[in-house]
Amino acid sequence: SKNILEIKNLKAYYKVLKGEVKAVDDISLNIRKGEILGLAGESGCGKSTLASTLISRKPPLHYISGDVRLLGKNIMGMNQAEFQKMRLRNISLIPQYALDAFSPTKKIKTLIRDLVQEHGISTGRKFFDKVEERLELVNLTPSVLNRYSIELSGGMKQRVIMVVSTILDPELIIADEITSALDVSSQRFVATMLANLRDKGIIGSAIFITHDLSILYQIAERLMIMYAGHFTELGPTDEIVNKARHPYTRALIASLPQVGIQYRDKKLSGIKGTPPYLLNIGEGCRFRYRCPYAVEQCEKTPVREKVAEGHYVSCWRWKELGSDHNG
Ligand code: ATP
Ligand code: MG
Fold it and tell me: CA 321 to CA 262: how far, in whole Å?
């Protein structure tokens, strides 16, 4: 198959005192071999929940349904031991700033050793030779191994973590907000380094999660946009940037000064309000409360439709709105 990962109709809900938080509600997505897929949408739309169903199939979630296949294997049906064998080797998460969680009195080399030994990987000479090689690939000298984490900048730490997370050449990497705590130039650098690892074939594919579309614009071949737990739009990056059909996607793109010229739509500029609270949320398009194009039909949950090859949208009005909308 040309897909590394196949997600079908994934639902992931949290249970709280007053009911259910429908954080991921019917998401389908395939990740192709070798691609970087950017996952975007504003805070609370379910990006991290989606990631955690892939990597840890996490306990705070009380309800998960759907089908998730990694390299053809159903990971939802696996027990913890089986899944643990795939972690790091086939699928790996780049955590945000993990080195901060460790002792400041240990050297980076020791921290790395502790981290990977948990996965049963031997950390002899050969291992560290490989680490040193990889450090050079992300523009770090091997001398960082003998330094302490407090001596490293945020961007440097994030690159060390990237090296460790990808050391076994996984087919799929999940990067969740790995750049959000960094300054703008480190953000770009870390994102570019990830793309380099992919270009060199060290990692196969990546899901790069961020609320910052301008980073995705630079490194992702495809973009998927979520809004309040729902799918809104998916397609090639250029197509999403220039020919988005969903009013929410357009509003997001329009908010990017660098790339947002195409959607100078007065109705969409500076959309007010916040996403709805997901607790016990009912039927309907979740963007309808803020959408200047909402009509009665939007009380029903839109179905996902094909706009063009590889381009999908969930909006009842996508055909009427057209693609070169300058209203
Ligand atoms: P951000 O951009 O801020 O990281 P996100 O897109 O990653 O946001 P999630 O963290 O997946 O969003 O959260 C999705 C929804 O699930 C939110 O409404 C959030 O409040 C809720 N949520 C997340 N974790 C829990 C939890 N442990 N218990 C209850 N609700 C949760
Ligand atoms: Mg998140």
Answer: 14
